Amino acid sequence: MSSTTTSPTRAAAVEVRGAHKWYGANRVLDGVDLTVQPGQVAVILGPSGSGKSTLLRAINHLEQLDVGHVSVNGELIGVRRHGERLKELGERAILAQRAGIGFVFQGFNLFPHLTALENIAAAPVATGRATREEARATALDLLARVGLADKADAYPRQLSGGQQQRVAIARALAQRPGLILFDEPTSALDPELVGEVLAVIRDLAGSGTTLIVVTHEIGFAREVADLVVFLDGGHIVEQGTPAEVLDNPQHPRTREFLSKVL
Amino acid sequence: MSERSLPAPTLPVADRPPVGVGAGATAPAPLSRQRVIPLRHPGRWIATAVVLVLVAQLAHGLVTNPFYQWDRFQYWFARPAILQGLVVTLEVTALSAVLGLAGGILLALARQSKNPILRAVSWTYIWLFRSVPLIVVLLILYNFSALYKTLSLGVPFGPGFVHFNESALATDLVVATVGLSLNEAAYAAEVVRAGILSVDQGQHEAAAALGLPKGYQFRRIVLPQALRAIVPAYVNQLIGLIKGTSLVFYVSLLDLFGEVQNMGSTYPTDVVPLLLVATGWYVVLTSVVSVVQFYVERHYARGALRTLPSTPLQKLRAGVRGLRERADRTHLGTVKA
Lengths: 262, 337
Hints:
The structure holds two protein chains of two kinds. By secondary structure, chain A is of the alpha/beta class. Chain A has a domain at 111-176. In chain A, 35% of the residues lie in helices and 26% in strands. In chain A, the strands form three sheets. Chain A has a six-stranded mixed beta sheet, sandwiched between helices. Chain A has a four-stranded antiparallel beta sheet with strand order 2-1-4-5, with helices on one face. In chain A, strands 6-7 form a two-stranded antiparallel ribbon. Chain B is mainly alpha-helical.
């Protein structure tokens, strides 16, 4: 809790320190420490109920940690330092912090009453980052980037799951985030649509944007990840490069999990 | 093109002679090329006939029974006094609908709030005004000036800053509107709350994750989706309100029903046609509201349905087109045969 939050050199993109979270008597996060460097792609693996989603949602403060803290680019998220204590931030400040962090949901959560273009252009206008025209132009660029230039005026329900998720990624990109969090982005998709979404995420990797992806796609992790984190029972069992964690796992729990998934 | 490749069924299959009977009988087409004969519903035809007879009887009675005095109905329908009453009804309805909905939204938001006091106040308000009959609310308000001579805005139990002379402020229109609005807000609150609850949790999360300002989240993300559930229920409520305004007669405001009641006591022989005049106007009002409802619902269905329901005009056009196409097809069929 002392000197790790602000490093003298370049701040880590994401730092999680001592994260604990309970749902009633159920301990979901049990002391997670995680560091992701700027521009890195981190993949979080683990069985269901291991706390992956909770950890991811804690990073943009959709979940509040009971103990521990998160900082993004050296800035504490959802709290501020008050002497030796942490104090909760106001709603407005938290929303402002979230605007700089992209989040992609398992169930897409596009706004069904807005077209693909409006979904993407809404947030930059509402948060005052762009004028209506700028946001529109950016949205069209982003739609082209995810291969959906012709779907600008389609409503989400007129799109396939893979297309919806690509629009959702474009929506996250519209805020020009330095960090994007993906919560099982392909789990709700038909097998043949998984590839098109992973292709979009692969393009983002190496663009300088930090990505943290919770997924079960081991092949994707091996190919794209700089850092693989294996989570079980609310703490990190093992982490390292894909070669270390996926090809030569040290912990028996990791081996057991990988043998089932692969 | 594909339709034409199917042979037009000239005879229902059942009427065709069985294969092999009669030398000149043409053999039916192979099963794979036949259209399925639709199931007959004789019960439906009987029910239709019974209902049509009953409706005809009712219509005949309405027209021929002298008791209805349709000439008097015609006389009264657009009398200035009745139209004045209609304007009052419209005024009271419009004001109470807007104030009631605004109050309902506030109450619904308070009910959803994290503040337990706001929640409790909202719950109690809804409980109270759904429990007390509207007529009682109106009569209490009507006698309010006897309870409180002046109304003041200021520090509770302390000095007041603004004073109102209650009896000057509380005209019959104000009393009626306030009473209806108070009542309406309690019901509207539950309608709005149901609408907000119908919006998926993921929508709130997505809005929060994008960092959208709180007010924007409600106005632009949650409310438009909630309205899909709110509109049909609130129109129901609104129609109840239109008819509920007939109670304002008891606080001496002469609305449509009040005028009818008034005229009825002056011209006792015209009571039935006068009641029919009121019925006619209330039917007109609810019909207008229902038509507006169709288009409002259609507006908020954007994105929720893959294709919007067609408007009556579009349906008419499609129907005419369908008929014309069918005529063309049968024409072609006979030419071929």
